[in-house]
């Protein structure tokens, strides 16, 4: 039998051997530098998995696939999902099923089992990839895992599955255990047991997950070395002192449990790393193999990357290994002072510093006070939360004990979470930096290496100054936008609606023109989806932590739906609307955040932000129609004249032509998403734009943009840029020139200087 290894597997073997060799040296600086270099080499340069962006077959509304379920079945209140290996293809896809009210469909869902051979009917989902800067790229996320596409089952009745694998018995046992806990414990406790012991956070409130993410405490919600170590401690204590087993017997029991636990706990990279490391340490000790813990960790790294090269793209994998290596290499620094408080503080600081560039490139911000908060949170989770949850699981056969412990846990933990929310509301000083330049990352780790060397040599005063240099370097990176002579205008792809971010040169002003949203499924209120997935990530990726103004063209949800969410999270200096904006809506905004100044604008007025002036052209009077009352204004950016038109129709366009005979503009924000009621021939002849930008949703139910409008724009000879086709449209400009670019691939790059196309 011939074993064929991929290039990534060969590389991981070589890298793993080098890790083991270098880590054996006593020189700490060589070990640290090589590990950091190796991680970035494999994660960002050489570990480039095959491109899985293309779905294995052409998209269609009715496709039948045959294959095998290759993962646990994830069930939530709204969907079921699993990985699916297509038969006779080396292609893995993600399959979703969104159930309806039919009980027969629910019975079919129960036939989905790990290892089952199935026939499924449905369609591939397109549009999985990010179309805005800063937006989470779900398609790339799937691709990094070797998953070629996402498939949605349309008819569960046509799904037929047979058989199952051995692993399904483990999943069944886990589900039965959780079901018994759920019967006797309250939902609060059940959610935390599911998250901390079995890797499923779906039952935790979204506000709690966000709180832990914002404070850099997500590692406590993901099963890691802390959880595995405490689990082993409890097992040893129970086995040795309760049922009086020998140490030898307990070691073999633990050795049998460790390979199984990651399977039933979600199979996250961090739990695999911790479990395999603990298993190898136990076996090597029994076999009297003398290896440093960091060398054993390198074996684990080697095994995981060899088994699945794409795992290096997982942020959890990167965080888990680089933090563990850093702690192992920093043992002298950590144990230099006596006292558990000092040890926890130093571990927390080292963990934060070592992953800071990765964290910023992924989440764009961090909380400096996280280091201090860990002094309270880590001991609390270690000494109370995890132990009591383990006791509840072990007491599942004594319902009265589960109920009592569950109530006790709820009382203590709910109050603790309230304290965290209080700290978040009153002591939150998050530092929004945005993405980091690659050169700075190299400089950062160079300074950090010197910092650790000085600490290890107990040269505290020089280490202090290097630490200050490290902080100053981060401040400089944060301040770079204030020295940038370029500004930018970004039309975000938010679907059917408008959200335009304007960043003036030297960060002299940042303002939004509209901030739309989609409606919730019940059509009673705007959804937070656009804000959370598009607007907020973009602002954070640009290092924007406050807004000088929000200018709202009119009061439709697709233009103002995200404003309430922005006001909750961002300081806003001015909120500007026309005089005919809905007063009740404005009162609701003031109730959310009363720190902004409200300004009303009419035709003839001017809005000044930074060194730039916006000339308001419309409205002149209340037309009684929200769209026709849209705020219309012009401004010059990069020596191009821009005209922002909101959702006006032909009636308002004619009014503008009559009031402003010389309405020539270089860039036209096409009104009402390209609706047939706007952008008349007369208006185009009067404005004569070189570029037209249409904010419009893909395959929207309104049929925007209207084909006649598109034809009129094409016949006028200007370049059309559309968010549905090109993703976010960005114009980077300075005083003399500007450049248009699109987030999604486009055939041509448009440039102009001094208002002329080149």
TrEMBL record:
Checking PANTHER family in the record gives:
BETA-LACTAMASE DOMAIN PROTEIN (PTHR30619:SF7), DNA INTERNALIZATION/COMPETENCE PROTEIN COMEC/REC2 (PTHR30619)
Keywords assigned by UniProt? Cell membrane, Membrane, Transmembrane, Transmembrane helix
Q: What is this protein called?
A: DNA internalization-related competence protein ComEC/Rec2
Q: Which InterPro entries match?
A: ComA-like_MBL, ComEC_N, Competence_ComEC/Rec2, Competence_DNA_uptake, DUF4131, Metallo-B-lactamas, RibonucZ/Hydroxyglut_hydro
Q: Which Gene3D superfamilies match?
A: Ribonuclease Z/Hydroxyacylglutathione hydrolase-like (3.60.15.10)
Q: Where are the transmembrane segments?
A: 6-23, 30-47, 220-243, 255-284, 296-329, 341-360, 380-400, 435-455, 462-483
Compartments where located: Cell membrane
SMART domains named among the record's database cross-references: Lactamase_B
Native organism is Gracilibacillus oryzae
Q: Name one GO biological process term.
A: establishment of competence for transformation
Domain named Metallo-beta-lactamase is located at 496-698
Mainly localized where? membrane
Topology term for the membrane: Multi-pass membrane protein
Pull one GO CC term from this UniProt entry. plasma membrane
């Amino acid at each position: 039998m011939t074993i064929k290894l991929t290039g990534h597997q060969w590389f991981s073997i070589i890298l793993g051997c080098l890790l083991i060799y270098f880590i054996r040296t006593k020189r700490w600086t060589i070990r640290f530098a090589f590990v950091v270099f190796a991680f970035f080499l494999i994660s960002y340069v050489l570990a480039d998995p095959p491109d899985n962006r293309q779905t294995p077959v052409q998209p269609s509304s009715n496709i039948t696939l045959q294959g095998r379920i290759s993962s646990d079945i994830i069930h939530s209140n709204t969907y079921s999902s699993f990985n699916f290996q297509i038969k006779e293809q080396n292609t893995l896809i993600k399959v979703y099923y969104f159930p309806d009210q039919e009980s027969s469909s629910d019975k079919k869902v129960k036939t989905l089992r790990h290892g089952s051979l199935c026939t499924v009917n449905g369609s591939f989902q397109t549009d999985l990839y990010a179309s805005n800067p800063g937006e989470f790229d779900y398609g790339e996320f799937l691709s990094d895992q070797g998953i070629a596409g996402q498939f949605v089952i349309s008819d569960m009745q046509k799904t037929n599955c047979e058989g199952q694998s051995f692993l399904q018995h483990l999943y069944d046992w886990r589900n039965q255990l959780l079901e018994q806990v759920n019967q006797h414990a309250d939902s609060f406790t059940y959610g935390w047991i599911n998250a901390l012991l079995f890797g499923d956070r779906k039952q935790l409130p979204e506000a709690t997950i966000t709180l832990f993410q914002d404070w850099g405490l997500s590692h406590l919600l993901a099963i890691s070395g802390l959880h595995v170590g405490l689990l082993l401690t409890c097992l040893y204590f129970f086995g040795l002192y309760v049922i009086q087993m020998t140490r030898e017997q307990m070691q073999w029991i633990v050795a049998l449990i460790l390979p199984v636990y990651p399977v039933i706990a979600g199979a996250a990279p961090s739990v695999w790393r911790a479990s395999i490391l603990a298993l190898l340490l136990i076996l090597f000790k029994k076999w009297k193999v003398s290896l440093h813990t960091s060398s054993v960790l390198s074996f684990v790294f080697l095994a995981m990357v060899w088994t699945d090269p794409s795992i290096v793209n997982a942020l959890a994998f990167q965080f888990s290994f680089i933090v563990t290596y850093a702690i192992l290499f920093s043992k002298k620094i950590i144990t230099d002072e006596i006292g558990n408080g000092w040890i926890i503080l130093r571990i927390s600081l080292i963990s934060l510093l070592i992953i800071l560039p990765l964290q910023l490139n992924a989440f764009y911000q961090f909380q400096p006070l996280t280091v201090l908060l860990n002094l309270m949170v880590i001991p609390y989770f270690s000494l109370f939360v995890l132990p009591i949850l383990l006791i509840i699981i072990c007491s599942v056969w004594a319902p009265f004990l589960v109920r009592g412990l569950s109530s006790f846990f709820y009382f203590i933990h709910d109050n603790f979470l309230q304290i965290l929310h209080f700290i978040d509301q009153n002591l939150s000083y998050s530092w929004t930096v945005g993405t980091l330049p690659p050169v700075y990352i190299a400089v950062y780790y160079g300074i950090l290496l010197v910092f650790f060397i000085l600490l290890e040599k107990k040269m505290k005063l020089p280490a202090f100054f290097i630490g200050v240099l490290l902080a100053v370097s981060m401040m400089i990176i944060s301040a770079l936008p204030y020295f940038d002579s370029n500004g930018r205008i970004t039309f975000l792809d938010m679907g059917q609606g408008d959200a335009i971010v304007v960043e003036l040169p030297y960060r002299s002003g940042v303002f939004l023109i509209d901030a739309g949203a989609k409606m919730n499924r019940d059509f009673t209120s705007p959804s937070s989806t656009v804000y959370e997935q598009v607007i907020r990530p973009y602002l954070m990726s640009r290092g924007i932590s406050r807004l000088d103004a929000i200018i709202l063209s009119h009061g439709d949800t697709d233009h103002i739906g995200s404003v309430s969410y922005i006001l909750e999270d961002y300081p806003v200096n001015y909120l500007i609307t026309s005089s005919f904006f809905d007063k009740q809506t404005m009162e609701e905004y003031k109730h959310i955040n009363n720190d902004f100044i409200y300004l009303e604008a009419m035709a003839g007025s001017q809005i000044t932000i930074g060194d730039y002036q916006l000339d308001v052209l419309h409205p002149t009077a209340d037309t009684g129609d929200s769209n026709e009352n849209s705020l219309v204004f012009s401004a010059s950016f990069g020596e191009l004249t821009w005209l922002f038109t909101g959702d006006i129709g032909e009636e308002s366009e004619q009014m503008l032509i009559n009031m402003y005979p010389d309405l020539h503009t270089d860039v036209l924000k096409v009104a009402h998403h390209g609706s047939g009621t706007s952008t008349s021939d007369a208006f185009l002849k009067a404005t004569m734009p070189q570029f037209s930008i249409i904010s419009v949703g893909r395959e929207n139910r309104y049929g925007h943009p209207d084909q006649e409008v598109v034809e009129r724009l094409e016949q006028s000879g200007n370049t059309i840029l559309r968010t549905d086709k090109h993703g976010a449209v960005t114009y980077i400009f300075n005083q003399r020139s500007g450049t248009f670019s699109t987030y999604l691939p486009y055939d041509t790059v448009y440039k102009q200087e001094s208002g002329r196309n080149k």
